[in-house]
Design a protein that fits this description.
Layout lengths: L4 H27 L7 E5 L5 H10 L4 E6 L2 H13 L6 E5 L12 E7 L10 H10 L1 E16 L5 H8 L2 H4 L15 H7 L3 E13 L4 H14 L9 H11 L14 E12 L1
Helix pairs in contact: 1-2, 1-8, 4-7
The structure holds S-adenosylmethionine.
């Protein structure tokens, strides 16, 4: 049980959003063709839900080590894995992706989702080099992040303005150098001397009528993407935001019978 309520909110948001993105993340993991029985690292593992998908992919003889800097999230991840009865196969360790607490060539692959290139405090060049260091020659390094979305069909100005707020730009290191933007990850892979460097985007769709779980996930996604933006929107647009993005509004966009939306994830891969 976590005492810190803001941490609990974050965990609940992770859970809800994961329900929405899970099919897309699973498709992406399958595209990696991770060897059965292999051992890999999930760096910035959060509450461990993607680690469960990775464990499923490598099978019962494989192993996944989840690493995160947050003690609270690691504790929650351990519970998640225990409930899935996978505590032998998925283990967790606290640490910094920029200075991994593992020997060279420890793993056969390394994966990091919505962490390197996404959290502004992380140096992506260092981190990709670290991920490559702990992977065996021939193994894969994979970085994944949310790369775009169309969640407000019919309201392009509002969506564009929301995405231009500090929170809307935040995951993409808005004030940093262009080379630090997640979509420039090819450069980090090349600097780490990875081979066959490649990028691919994957799409997740939502279509009305939304199931209750998807509706909740959409609300969590709105909250995660566009926080504290009231003062950055013109008053008129903020009124439109309240009308279509707040779940208690009778005009909540997710309840529209013609609602359709999509988001993309972009995967960068390279071989050590
Ligand atoms: C947006 S969450 C993504 C969690 C998970 N990978 C997923 O896809 O659901 C980002 C995670 O990266 C972790 N993180 C941020 N900076 C980190 C660092 N320097 N080293 C390790 N983990 C870090 C955070 O604690 C958080 O759990």
């Amino acid at each position: 049980m976590l005492e810190n309520s803001s941490e609990m909110d974050e965990i609940e948001q992770h859970r809800r959003v994961h329900a929405l993105i899970e099919p897309t993340v699973l498709e992406i993991i399958r595209s990696l063709h991770l060897p059965l029985g292999s051992s890999g690292l999930d760096a910035g593992c959060g509450i461990g839900l993607p680690a469960l998908l990775l464990a499923d992919e490598v099978g019962p003889t494989g192993k996944v080590t989840g690493l995160d800097q947050s003690e609270e999230l690691i504790r929650e991840a351990e519970q998640v894995v225990k409930q899935a009865d996978l505590s032998d196969q998925v283990v967790f360790q606290r640490g910094d992706v920029q200075q991994l607490p593992f020997e060279d060539n420890t793993f056969e692959w390394a994966w990091s989702a919505s962490c390197v290139g996404y959290a502004p405090s992380i140096d992506p060049w260092y981190s990709v080099r670290e991920l490559a260091r702990v992977v065996n020659p021939g193994g894969t390094v994979a970085l994944l992040a949310f790369s775009s979305e169309k969640l407000l069909p019919g309201y392009p100005l509002l969506e564009a303005r929301l995405n231009a707020t500090a929170s809307g730009r935040a995951p993409f290191v808005s004030e940093g150098k262009p080379e630090m933007h997640f979509m420039r990850a090819l450069g980090w892979f090349k600097a780490a001397r990875l081979r066959n460097v490649a990028a691919q985007s994957f799409v997740g769709d939502l279509q009305a009528p939304l199931k209750q779980q998807t509706r909740q996930a959409l609300i969590a996604l709105f909250t995660m993407r566009w926080q504290n933006m009231e003062n950055e929107l013109p008053e008129e647009l903020y009124k439109v935001y309240q009308k279509i993005c707040l779940p208690q509004s009778p005009d909540f966009i997710g309840d529209h019978p013609d609602y359709y939306a999509f988001f993309t994830f972009t995967l960068f891969t390279g071989y050590v």
